[in-house]
Amino acid sequence: MPAPKGNQFWKARTKHGRDKIFNDPEVLWNACCEYFEWVENNPLYESKAFAYQGEVKIETLPKMRAMTISGICIFLDISRSTWDEWRRVESFSNIITRAEEIIRDQKFTGAAAELLNPNIIARDLGLSDKQELTGKDGNAIKIENKPDLSELSDKELELYEELAILRSKRDQTGESET
Fold it and tell me: What InterPro entries does the annotation carry (predicted)?
């Protein structure tokens, strides 16, 4: 049965939304530290086959688990949007920034030591190896396409000159190359 029209039941509500999981920055920081410890204490495992004197053995080896923002959000039972909102809340912003720096440093040092896949971590961290080349005053580099004529025979030089004359005439009249 629906509520009667014009009801004001919503006014009887004592609060809106669920209780905050973390009311205090120190409690949030302690929970973040619990996540960091959990990551360290719960590595991933890789199975590798080893052969020694004709006998093959399969061993499981611990591998470093990368810390992630998604991982900490799941651990804290919050959404990514909540994490991003807390970055803008003055009392939580230092905690969020410090946690993100720890996560970034753990990924970077793990990749540098090749304990984590360097290519995947570099993309995740937004690292790239780019070189941008520019010409004079930051403009595009102009490349002049001048062939080396020193190896051409006299006949080839004559043909080249004729082509240059035809190209010049075409450029003056505005005709296309077809």
Answer: GP3_package
Q: Which structure tokens are listed for 139?
A: 């403009």
For residue 62, give its domain range. 19-125
> In 27-110, where do the E strands start and end?
44-52, 55-63
Query: Measured between alpha carbons, how far is 117 from 130 in angstroms, rounded to an integer?
Result: 20
> Within a domain: residue 177?
no
CA distance 96 to 102: 10
The verdict on residue 9 lying in a domain is no
Q: Is residue 114 part of a domain?
A: yes
* Domains identified in the chain, total number: 1
Q: What is the CATH number of the domain that holds 112?
A: 1.10.132.80
On whether residue 148 sits in a domain, the answer given is no
Given a contact cutoff of 8 angstroms between Cβ atoms, the answer to whether 43 and 62 are in contact is yes
Residue 67 CB neighbour total at 10 angstroms: 23
Q: For residue range 6-46, list pLDDT tens digits in order.
A: 777 666 666 666 667 888 999 999 999 999 999 999 999 99
**Tens of pLDDT along 80-135?**
999 999 999 999 999 999 999 999 999 999 988 988 888 888 888 887 767 777 77
C-alpha–C-alpha distance, residues 96 and 71, integer Å:
14
